[in-house]
Input
Amino acid sequence: MSGTPTCAVMIATRNRREDLTRTCAVLRALDPAPDEVLICADGCTDGTEEFVRRDHPEFQLVANPKSLGSTRSRDHLMRIARSDVVLSLDDDSHPLEADAIARIRRLFADHPRVAVASFPQRTDEHPETLTAADFGPVHFDGTYVNCACAFRRAVFCELGGHFGPFWNAYDEPDFALRCAAAGWQVRFDPSVTIRHYFSGVNRNHLRMHQLHARNEIWSVLMRCPMPQMFAVMLFRIVRQFAFAVKWGWRWVLNEPRWWLACIAGAPAALAQRRPVPWRRYRDWMDLIRRPVRDESEWATKFGNP
Output
């Protein structure tokens, strides 16, 4: 990438037309405007497709007749985008700064090792963030959130994108791991702030736990080297069970559902197995727990892929 990078916006949505309407209005007011806006209506039955075609014909619409999940939908949008950088939003999230696109372009131009820029959120899910005066300094993370981040598209494609069977959840740490192993940064940068209204539509906390737990094990099968893979897998199964215990017997009794789903999908995960060196995997796990604030420390751990 040379000069000023181009910047797109992508959104995967399912039956949240009212939220999408608000977000599209904000996107239209950004100055400068994004070079392209891509929206995937993932099996929508609430008039989302008609809304986008009628009110925002300048946006590129992808319509999945049947829901394919947010992971596969985002992966497809990333691959058809033409821009150098892609800002990823949810249908209920948008930048607060009118010049966010200019800031994102500058960030990626100034920091050539950044694969993912992660932005702070002012979200209803955590009310204290709505009035927070400071989100802390720039640092390097082992994950990010898809509703508040921007990707360097060439790196996304180079590293293989998202694992479609994830459907939803855990695609962020799985991709961040591959970035770290290849010497690319996930940079938390408060130069852009995202407002996330956090819609309750299509959110089931038990279901999300099960998807996250299942996908976490699939990621271990794909990325963790032998013989450490077995110990890491056991640790994560026990940790997920302990999490379910905190939520009560209903969650505990439902744990076998994701175990069976995990076993059923294991052959597909193993077919994609590309383990990273253990040192990189271990350092990435530490990065999840303890983000790195000093670039020289990051370079020592991850700078030589």
About this structure: The two ends are 20 Å apart (CA to CA). The longest helix spans residues 249-271. The chain has a mean pLDDT of 95. Residues 7-196 form a domain with the Spore Coat Polysaccharide Biosynthesis Protein SpsA; Chain A fold (CATH 3.90.550.60).
